[in-house]
Design goal:
By secondary structure, the chain is of the alpha/beta class. The chain has one domain: 3-Layer(aba) Sandwich (Rossmann fold), CATH 3.40.50. Helices cover 30% and strands 25% of the residues. Strand 2, helix 3 and strand 3 form a beta-alpha-beta unit. The radius of gyration is 17 Å and the shape is globular. The C terminus is likely disordered. The structure holds S-adenosylmethionine. The site of S-adenosylmethionine (SAM) has 23 residues, from helix 1 and strand 2.
Length: 235
Amino acid sequence: MGSSMDNQHNLRIYRLWSPVYDRVFKAISRGGRQRAAALLDMQPGETLLIPGIGTGLDLLYLPASITVIGGDLSPAMLAKARAKAAGRDITLTEMDAQNLDLPDASVDAVLFTLILSVVPDGAAALREGWRVLRPGGRVVIFDKFLPENAALTPARRLLGRLIQTLGTDPNRRLSDLLRGLPELTVSHNEASLFGGQYRVIRLDKAATKVQRLTINRIGGTQQGAPTFPVGGAIT
Ligand SMILES: C[S@@+](CC[C@H](N)C(=O)[O-])C[C@H]1O[C@@H](n2cnc3c(N)ncnc32)[C@H](O)[C@@H]1O
């Protein structure tokens, strides 16, 4: 990924962010979170995993009738999430999103909000979420990505390094994270904040294992590839 971020760095940074995180990010992220919650379409009794739940801002937009498993690396962020957990069926626990302590196919849905750009290896975190997702389940992502058609210029690289010191990497491409995920359909990929650099995405996992021929983003065909729009129009 070309990222200098690691778990120790994230632990330090998010301990510092924890007292002010909601004040800084609650209002600006509201629209994206609401859209993500709508795309998740949680039904009563379903189980939702939220890796990197942070201070739990997503809980404000999710129904109380579901079971939530929220993991995060940072005890300081989790302490803030606990304050939003009253009246819910929720487990909040220290957990590395890249290495989930959960069985295969054990949840109905997974929500990744502003986390795939933060963990050292976003692709590993997405693979883990996909592993624990049941067949027929869905993943919703709200995050920023490097536009598919944008070159990673030296200037962007430098800016990325600076932003990484604040605890997030703006230079990850969605297509890199999705590569190799089996049984995947990208059913929504919508622009959100900052001219579409932030996006809300829904991924659906096939209900049964099927061998599909899908068109990949450079126009060829390949088995089991993510169903990108032709021409790489993910941006
Ligand atoms: C930008 S915040 C997003 C928090 C929350 N998802 C939200 O939408 O507000 C990133 C979160 O990822 C957590 N984090 C960083 N590395 C992680 C890892 N390897 N596993 C789990 N959580 C991690 C941080 O502690 C922080 O709470």
